[in-house]
Amino acid sequence: MRVTYRELHDVLSRALERAGLEPERAQLSARLVADASRDGVASHGLNLFPRLLRMIATGIVDVRARARCVSAHGSIERWDGGRGVGNLNAHDAMSAAIALARAHGIGCVALANTNHWMRGGTYGWQAADAGVIGVCWTNTLPNLPPWGADVARVGNNPLVIAVPRPDGHVVLDMAMSQFSYGALAAHRLRGEMLPVPGGFDNSGALTQDPAAIEASRRPLPIGFWKGSGLAVMLDLIAATLSGGRATHEIPADPEQETGVSQVFLALDASSLAAPGETIRIVDAIVADLQVRYPGERTLETRRRNMTDGIPVEPSIWQDVLGYVAHTS
Amino acid sequence: MRVTYRELHDVLSRALERAGLEPERAQLSARLVADASRDGVASHGLNLFPRLLRMIATGIVDVRARARCVSAHGSIERWDGGRGVGNLNAHDAMSAAIALARAHGIGCVALANTNHWMRGGTYGWQAADAGVIGVCWTNTLPNLPPWGADVARVGNNPLVIAVPRPDGHVVLDMAMSQFSYGALAAHRLRGEMLPVPGGFDNSGALTQDPAAIEASRRPLPIGFWKGSGLAVMLDLIAATLSGGRATHEIPADPEQETGVSQVFLALDASSLAAPGETIRIVDAIVADLQVRYPGERTLETRRRNMTDGIPVEPSIWQDVLGYVAHTS
User: Fold this and answer.
1) Average pLDDT in the B126-153 region?
2) Residue B164 sits in which domain range?
3) Which residue, among A208, A241, A247, A261, would best test binding to B if mutated, counting the most B CBs under 10 Å from its CB?
4) Are residues B107 and B255 in the same domain?
5) B69 part of contact set with chain A, CB < 8 Å
6) Chain A residue closest to B294 (CA)?
7) What's the structural domain count of chain B?
8) Strand partners, B207
9) Are A44 and A74 found together in one domain?
10) How confident is the model at residue B182 (pLDDT cuts 50, 70, 90)?
11) Over 70: is that where the pLDDT of B44 sits?
């Protein structure tokens, strides 16, 4: 089932207004969610939206909170998200990092006490649209056993890196697990094995069977010990810079996951470069790859969905329509 | 075979003086190489030293060059390495990034036109010893096929992240390939299979046989498509910030690998935190892991080698001793 971008945005925005957001904030948050579905990432767009509404209803997400700077030192700031709407907090934090980068070449905002940012790539595209390099990551609830353990003690801590490019930004958006639980479920429902090993089964053997990994709760970090170590480092930096929660302090139930810590970095390469130099370098790297660059497929999907309509999961779409009708 | 740290350092320092470095610079470069072997990373310490001497002899490495700042904007600087000694250039660049972080909370130095930094972890330990978070990476010659290709078009672009901790810094030092060619050779010589799949054989099947990967020249990026994407992003940022070479412009022969681009970031978490807060957060994360933290093994190895002596590969050690004797 497909809907127009305008329809999707309007319904999401009305739902958020009904949930208590100010109209302007509802529209921005709705745009970020709609953009994720438009870009082919419905798993972190519309499909996460009902959970956001539930977490607003239970009071875990405070619709009136605004992230604010609590301390600053030169080009780095520490912000408190006040348990506000995750994608708005993240958007505001990246905006502040971009402003710091314009003033100082580089800017960093560490955000504590916030909520799930939904699609991480959002803030990479935001930085690249502003013409700067964006790097950001979030910690998460414990959902990944570190290498050498069989119980989840680290988060999959998604990392986003974006480099602006006039013909299409280069944007990497990747979690530290080889496959998300969402991806495991999707493969299982399609009756497909994973293309590469994605975790351990209950006997401790590497497997490509998604159901076996769902059963063991032992998904694999990317690169085995390497992604495990990287997840630890991202958590350390996010928690220490922001002064907020580390993964081990975040409730392990996704419906209760709150108080996460995030880092937003922006770097203005053009401030050091000759005119046109940065674009030439980026274009040459992309051209030499001879395979798809990170973000290339996103742009193709975006174009197709803006023409054909945005795919929506019918049951989720009906839920949101019901919420809007019910509460209006 | 083992030698004392002092003996190792003195011989390396004398070799570098003979090769034309000023005494003070020879001592610093020798210390960085000796520290790598002391920490159990001889592959990027003493074992790379003969190549450094050869590249000085052929004029690829300019022993008299000093890296210098060529443009600056607030907290970010672009440096030209002048094709100088790689570990000295990297050390100077991280020193400058640390100074920027002290002044502005965060600092970034992008270094173009430099040479192999030998052990990347060196500059992470350097930042952590100074009490700040260090993040740095280098691009390399093309040595890794991006996901979807069978020819090396990206570098393994080592990434280093270090967080200071009084009881032992947390330091991650990882390349984007699952195993280096050095690690593949070491496994093959011991007659061992790799512990996990490390690349493709000539038929395009994933394999744990190190010799098959050496033959195909198709090592695996960490996390398959994810590490491949991350390698591209690290190259893009290093080349655009520094204005230097991207991987596709770096000669593919290791004996000719020069003009690499590097990024050095330092972040001063303590500048935003209450006294003791950062240490408490880091210690709590490390304690909760219940597996080794990145860098823990390094510290154990360091203690053992300082007591028992630094292991050296006899043939390489004799080469260096011969160089010192021959040229004195």
Assistant:
1) 97
2) 64-177+221-294
3) A241
4) yes
5) no
6) A229
7) 2
8) B199
9) no
10) confident
11) yes
